[in-house]
Amino acid sequence: MTNRTALLIALGVSALLTLVIAFLTLAPVSGLPGVKVSDKVYHAFAFASLAFPVTVVRPRWWAAVVLVSAVYGGVIEIIQPFVGRSMDIRDWLADILGAILGAGAGVSVWYLFGRRLKLRSALGQRARQN
């Protein structure tokens, strides 16, 4: 798999997660299942999941990924009162924390596994050229 293909897959997964998050955060509350734990945990998990795929493939993009995720979470919180939901700054802070954790996890995975795979790929290409 080329690096470009991996990036396109990561962006596709993040785009799909963006739609899922929009649906879950903007749907009427009565249509959602009951919350067993604090909804802040769900917010953090959702935005960690959103930030993770791209940072695994492009770890240097972590700050941009966190910033875009934070803006997206803020926009959702601003829109929520217009769809019968309540705006909560703590939800937005949980979104930001989740994005930071997800980006950090993505960068960590890249440093643990991605660098080795990239090095092996480069060595394999060099061996085929010889």
Give a verbal description of the structure.
This protein is mostly helical. It has one domain. It has four helices and no strands. The chain has helices at 3-26, 39-57, 62-79, 89-129. Helix 1 runs antiparallel to helix 2 (39-57). The longest helix has 41 residues, at 89-129. The mean pLDDT is 86.
The rough form would be described as elongated
Portion of residues in beta strands equals under 5%
Largest sheet: none
- Computed CA radius of gyration, to the nearest angstrom: 18 Å
- Please, how many helices? 4
Quick description:
InterPro entries: VanZ-like. With 130 residues, the chain is mostly helical.
Explain the layout of strands and helices.
Elements: H1 3-26, H2 39-57, H3 62-79, H4 89-129
Helix pairs in contact: 1-2, 2-3, 2-4, 3-4
What are the key terms here?
4 helices; mainly alpha; single chain; VanZ-like; elongated; transmembrane; 130 residues
